[in-house]
Amino acid sequence: MHLFSPLTFLLGVLALISYKVLSSIREKRRQSAEAARRGCGPCPILPKQDLLGITQFRESIRATRAERGPKYVVEKMDAMGKNIHTVQVRVLDYDLNVTRDPENARACFSSQSNDFDIGVHRTQSWKPLLGVGIFTSQGEAWKHSRALVRPQFTTQQISDLDLAERHTRDLTNKIVAGADGWTETMQLQPLFYNFALDTVTEFLYGYSVHAQNPNARAALPTVRGMDEPNLLELGVNFDQGKRWIEERGAFYKWYWLISSKDFDHRCREIHKLVDWFVQCRLQGGDKQKDPELADGKKKFILLNELAKETQNPLELRNESLSLLFAGRDTAGALLGWVFYFLARNERVFNKLRTLVLEQFGSSPTSEITFAQLKACTYITHVINEVFRVAAVIPLNERVAVRDTTLPRGGGPDGSQPIFIPKGRQVLIATYAMQHRADIWGDDVEDFVPERWEGRKVGFEFIPFGAGPRSCLGQQFSHTETSYVIVRFCQRFDRIENMEEPGPIRLCHAIENRSGSGVQVRLHEAAR
Ligand code: HEM
Ligand SMILES: *[C@@H]1O[C@H](CO)[C@@H](O)[C@H](O)[C@H]1NC(C)=O
Ligand SMILES: *[C@@H]1O[C@H](CO)[C@@H](O)[C@H](O)[C@H]1NC(C)=O
Ligand SMILES: CC(=O)N[C@H]1CO[C@H](CO)[C@@H](O)[C@@H]1O
């Protein structure tokens, strides 16, 4: 007997469709009643070129591939009006709100608001690689992770300049000048990614993968039940794994359409390697000695501190992977952008170099202290300006965990609040916010570190996020970046852009780097 004849099937489908339509109408009604009750005004909607919103979807993917994704967002908003800062976008049947209004960003991020959390799409697209850790969890699970990880980022632990010194030395050793003092034309970007990977793996696990200098790698201890890992593969597997995650992220709620054997393979390999670090720690107990420590100083290793709190190998894997992910490519991309702009702004480079030599001396082996790095405000202004113009993370997101409002963007002049129903995703377009002439002035597109003198910033500049989920690695990355800047300025007195002129290419992954890398040649200072 057939339980489902074609007719019952058809009736079933019809019933389902009418149910969907009805409940969607009911939900729309509920939302407008709720919006009216809260005194919300309507918010501008990006004009749809077609009924389904397919054009929008195609356009945005095309802009991303052409390495101008963040600029595309600015243009779309400008096209609706220079003073329109919050819009609604419809991608297929998925509604999004996009904002470049600092007040709305404040509402999404600030600790007063419990109405927003990170979206479930982020968790779902990243989970196969990262597991569930501080970067991917929500609600109570996130609170647990944050409480576990946060104490490890105290000033004393992140100001270990020895770590920065050793890896910066490996970095500058890669740069060799000829007889006339000039290097060949070089691509700096991969060097910075390797530098960042080396630093963060040593900080987290106590073992650098030494991507910059494989000869420096010491023999690894034996770990019962595990093969010796190939540390060098970590960077490659991470890059490839991340490409899959990006792909999944770009498909919003259809992330699950993207899956592949290669992705599974990358995840497995990464987990195997991290599990080796974890087992090494768990089996070695407190007696685990770090093989790279020569001078008897006790080195801070984040995994060791976590292991005092939990012995669950999966938790140790998940939490440390979140940190590896958060800390590697962001730091590499930032360094790339710093030298991208220095190579194009001779005045800024010369001023920076003069100040660095004044404060740190001209010898590339001079001692550098944490206090000195903090005191050199021009370095901070340069880094801020790099963040502003290039936006290492050009887009952030939050999802409403309950019906709520954003304070601005509604009504004819955009001054009324707007209604955000539970589950709605809000994209916070940080790049767009940092390119608003009404906030930054008419020279908004120029690279001018001086604009930071005496400037107080609010939510219009949040390169590290803000509020309860703000970046834990901010100080760590500032120290690392400043350190590299100082050593470069001491060693080189000129940096020349070797790339053909052309528009800035914003290769937007999760973090964003220059699409054409950083092609320069450097001139060694005379000694
Ligand atoms: C240039 C370097 C960096 C940039 C631009 C950056 C940016 C960010 C941003 C924007 C967020 C917030 C994400 C959100 O709102 O959902 C974040 C979170 C985070 N970052 Fe960074 N980051 C950098 C370096 C680092 C480093 C070096 C580490 C660690 C070693 C790190 C660890 C974290 C962690 C753990 C979080 C998650 C915090 C939470 O959700 O509670 N970051 N970062
Ligand atoms: C977001 O979109 C909804 C409709 O999908 C609209 O009612 C609301 O006003 C928009 N809010 C923002 C912040 O754009
Ligand atoms: C770690 O992440 C994996 C997914 O990769 C998940 O199955 C597991 O439950 C997580 N474990 C802990 C303790 O966080
Ligand atoms: C780290 C890095 O550069 N990631 C990716 C940036 O985006 C390009 C193109 O989408 C990828 O090729 C990179 O792997």
From TrEMBL:
Residues 1-23 form the signal peptide. Transmembrane segments: none annotated. InterPro entries: Cyt_P450, Cyt_P450_CS, Cyt_P450_E_CYP52_ascomycetes, Cyt_P450_E_CYP52_fungi, Cyt_P450_E_grp-II, Cyt_P450_sf. Pfam families: p450. Belongs to the cytochrome P450 family. It comes from the Eukaryota. Coiled coil: none annotated. Keywords: Heme, Iron, Metal-binding, Monooxygenase, Oxidoreductase, Signal. Its cofactor is heme. The keyword Heme applies. The keyword Heme applies. SUPFAM superfamilies: Cytochrome P450. This is Cytochrome P450.
